[in-house]
């Protein structure tokens, strides 16, 4: 049994309930994901991400081919290549550990949206890609948390457009 297997065995079984345990097992056994197991709050965030994404076959495939890597920078960033990589920065990790941890889940789902919606291959503006990824997160049930996250950040023109789009969708779904 290698190091990753041992870390997975220490993971509380409660984090497999409600998920497709095979996918969760593969996810947590990945050596690049060991940092997730280091903190209960971070683990809870990823449990929510896994539960949300496991509801769809295409997203299950995404999980099998994705790495969530902790690094330096601001919040998060999604990159495609041979592997799908979502870079997670210290600011987002701090939010994961806070009482606003569902905002972090919303941001992670936003980054997944960039990949699922194939933004690196499509010819759309950055603002449109951000709005589409926001709406992806919202469709998965985290729009209100993403709205709060964006509303607490810099109020530049792009964020204002994103907030406006989210507000419109949230009003339609009676969540706002």
Describe this structure as you would to a colleague.
The chain has one domain (3-172). A hairpin with a 4-residue loop joins strand 2 and strand 3. The protein is mostly helical. The chain is built from eight helices and three strands, in the order H-H-H-H-E-E-E-H-H-H-H. A three-stranded mixed sheet has the order 1-3-2.
Determine the mean pLDDT.
85
- Walk across the major sheet and give the strand order: 1-3-2
Total helical segments: 8
Q: Unreliable segments (pLDDT under 50, ≥5 consecutive)?
A: 1-19
Major beta sheet summary: 3 strands, mixed
How many domains? The number is 1
Strand content: 5-15%
Radius of gyration over C-alpha positions, nearest whole angstrom: 16 Å
Number of strand elements:
3
Helix content: 55-70%
Gap between N and C termini, in Å?
A: 49 Å
Order of helices and strands: HHHHEEEHHHH
**Morphology call:** globular
The structural class is mainly alpha
Key words describing this protein structure:
176 residues, mainly alpha, 8 helices
What is shown here, in short?
By secondary structure, the chain is mainly alpha-helical. It is 59% helix and 8% strand. It has one domain.
């Amino acid at each position: 049994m290698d190091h990753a297997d041992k870390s997975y065995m220490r993971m509380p079984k409660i984090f497999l309930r409600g998920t497709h345990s095979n996918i969760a097992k593969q996810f947590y056994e990945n050596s690049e994901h060991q940092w997730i197991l280091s903190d209960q709050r971070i683990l809870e965030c990823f449990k929510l991400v896994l539960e949300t994404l496991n509801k769809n076959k295409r997203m299950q495939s995404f999980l099998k081919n994705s790495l969530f890597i902790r690094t330096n920078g601001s919040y998060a960033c999604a990159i495609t290549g041979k592997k799908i990589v979502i870079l997670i920065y210290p600011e987002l990790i701090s939010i994961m550990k806070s009482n606003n941890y569902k905002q972090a889940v919303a941001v992670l789902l936003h980054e997944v949206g960039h990949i699922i919606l194939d933004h690196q291959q499509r010819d759309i503006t950055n603002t449109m890609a951000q709005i589409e990824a926001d709406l992806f997160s919202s469709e998965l049930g985290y729009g209100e948390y993403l709205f709060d996250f964006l509303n607490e950040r810099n109020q530049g023109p792009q964020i204002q457009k994103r907030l406006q789009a989210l507000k419109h969708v949230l009003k339609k779904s009676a969540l706002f």
